[in-house]
Amino acid sequence: MSYTPSLVSVLIPLFNRAQYIEETIHSVLSQDYPNIQLIVIDDGSSDGGDLLVQAIADQTKLILLRHPGNVNKGQAAALNLGLTMATGEFIAVLDSDDLYAPGKIAKQVAFFQQNPEVGLVYGNGKGIDAAGNVIYEINYDNRIERSDPNDLLLDCYFLLPQNSLVRASVYQQAGNFDETLRSGQDHDMLIRLAEKTKIAHQSIDSFRYRRHGDSISAKGTETRWRCGLIILEKAAQRYPYQKSTLRKRRALVNFRLAQALYQKKTNRFEMVWRMLLAGLLDPVRSIAVVTGKEKIR
Q1: Residues 24, 94: contact at Cβ < 8 Å?
Q2: What three-state secondary structure class fits 41?
Q3: pLDDT per residue over 269-297, tens digit each?
Q4: Average pLDDT of 202-230?
């Protein structure tokens, strides 16, 4: 597949985010980088958000895509549709309620030009509330980036959509987003990208991650961790991860799933079983949690 040199294709999957989508789009259109292809993929919105995007598309070069019949097929399917239309040398993904910081794209493209061996670069950012007020910093400056897929599989220590820029050729190697996953498709894609290319951190302010009660990250905790088990098993079959990495990740996912079941006050037997399994898989960390040496977040 051929790509347009220096073009950045920004993909925004949209589902019922009328309250935020215009601000999100503006954060892309106001970038100081002139060579951007902006693609919004509506995933069957029913709150009028797609109509707001259509009005912007009528006045700009923004591309609005919809599934046949305007059905809801999930974020992974929306992103895959966007990838079929993306022609840029670089791919950026932005959730429909998050924002890019000024200068984000230009700085990351410059980083790629100076580091041709890197296929994915990510930056720092800030968490914001529904009104856009900064509530915490997201900073990776103190982390040593080893570009090791084991690190990402185990800790999932940075977000893929908001802060990253990826070479389109790496997406082509990794394949499409997994449409069978009901949650965690971004984590799945991130580790698949890391398996294919060198990743790097750039110490820049690059994004705003919006936290609000209706965000995807605030819902479906049980589903997220059940999908986490699926993602883990697929990763184990696909790439030669260290046995200790797989064991510790299985412990973590089982522990988080047990937490989710406890909060829902259902499936008590499964909750206890998964908690015990987590302890058996990673006894050192389990003891640290029980003794209070490691705080549960």
Answers
A1: yes
A2: strand
A3: 999 999 999 999 999 887 776 666 666 66
A4: 84
pLDDT of residue 171: 96
Q: Domain limits at 76? A: 4-210
Compute the distance between CA of residue 231 and CA of residue 188 in angstroms, rounded to an integer: 6
Token readout for 133 is 């007020």
> What is the residue type of 170?
V
What is the rounded distance in angstroms from the CA atom of residue 86 to the CA atom of residue 221? Answer: 31
Structure letter (DSSP) for residue 101: P
Residue 113 falls inside a structural domain: yes
Q: Which residue has the tokens 């989508």?
A: 21
Q: Distances in Å between the alpha carbon of 25 and those of 15, 30, 49, 202, 265?
A: 14, 9, 12, 23, 40
Kindly state whether residue 63 falls inside one of the protein's structural domains.
yes
Residue 17: Cβ-neighbour burial (10 angstroms; 0-12, 13-18, 19+): buried
Residues 94 and 134 in one domain: yes
Q: Which of 37-51, 101-115, 216-230, 260-274 has the lowest mean pLDDT?
A: 216-230
Residue reference for tokens 């394949």: 175
> What are the pLDDT digits (tens) for 234-247?
999 999 999 999 99
